[in-house]
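Deliverable D5.2: sample structural annotation.
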Amino acid sequence: MKEIEKIVKQLKEDTKQSDDITYREKYVCKKQVYVIYNEPLTSSDKISDFIIRSLDRIDRIYKKTNHLESIILNEIDNFKIKKINTYDDICYYLNYGFTILLLEDSPYYFALETKRDLSRSIAAPQTENALRGAMDSFVEDMQTNMGLIRRRIKDNNLWIESNEVGRYTKTKVNVIYMNGICKKEVVDYVNHIIQEIDIDGIISSGTIKNLIEKENKSVFPTIFSTERPDKVCQALLSGRIVIMVDCSQFALILPIVMNDLFLSTEDAFNKSINISLTRIIRYLAFFITLFTPAVYLAITTYNQEMLPTELLVSFASQRSTVPFPAFVEALIMMIAFEILRECDLRSPTFTTSALSTVGALILGEAAVNAGIVSPIMIIVIAITALSSLLFTEPEMINGVRWYRLLFMLGASFMGIIGVVIAMMYFIIKLCSLHSFGIPYFAPFSPLSKTGLKNSIIKFPAKDLDKREKFLSNNITKYKKVNK
């Protein structure tokens, strides 16, 4: 039996005669040739127009030759062709959308790219909407995503290091960074972690994210996921690393600090004095959503002396018909709101607004009328819920949930003192946390003058001429011109 026939037989046995894989036997220049392709992954038009017709033309012109390999290499009408010589290579390229050419008595074989376009078209961002800014987002195709980045950064120092992860999926994972800006030791560390991953398969970038960031070390994210190419390019130019996973529309940005979660793409389109006010509101909303339920529990349960007498009497009269302690009351309403929020995320878009609005109105009104919760608790939970809507990063929202519960527990056991103790733990935890060697609480701890210019108060763009030292050794963005 010929060598190529053995390969075909083994391939049929390994795939259990799968109907997806097509085998076509031809004779070109009196030599046996097998054309093999995976039908769902390949374009039949490309195979017919560029491969089959080219082989027929070669057969007509040369009739008989001992150099069929070199003739095919030069004459075939296909823009991308690779030489391969192992069975594993044949299986890899076959399942990657390539067409395989097996030639009789040839020391090597050919893999010709004939991928079918299985990706959707570029659309506007769905999870990170902005009034102003780029209206394109990543898709599930790696090449398209790399094109969205390269059209913005037209420089040879945009370096890409590719890895293959997953025993069965063999997913392509790209580590992208700016050479000369990003610290090489961080790149090497990230590449080392990715290369050490031994797993059945990678289906999305979320799996990579959880595997490289020590999943449960902190409830707050140390890696940021985004579908916006403009945000990715801004991160690359600041000295950060971007990880892109094939078949996933979300890119991973690392390392990040907590201050990055309060920044927005739209900040670049407004005056610094207006953005500063907006960021103050974001930080204020963060503290409101964290502390409001806990402070309410503390002053109504342990520290009544902090309230004016009239207000205390009003609170007491409202809670006179409520059969539950204040902590249980708050917990019931918070769980109800989180259920509504999850319904919003899981429901079809056209029902989302009506569902959340009607659910909140009916639930709140019915709970007050039934005497399950007090009106003031509805107000407290509503303020808390509205403040949390300013944040779109899911990991950020989940982190706030956990710490809000911790503050509530501290308030229910020790009042304001319990809230203060929980807050001290919260600050110590954030200060001790690191994101790939970078202090998570930077630029506040340790204090960084450069970072403070783009934190709560945003300085004018002409003053933001330096990169953070913990991100890059090349800290100069541009030289200011005095006019």
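Annotation notes: The mean pLDDT is 88. The two ends are 82 Å apart (CA to CA).
The annotation will be released with the project's public dataset once the embargo ends.
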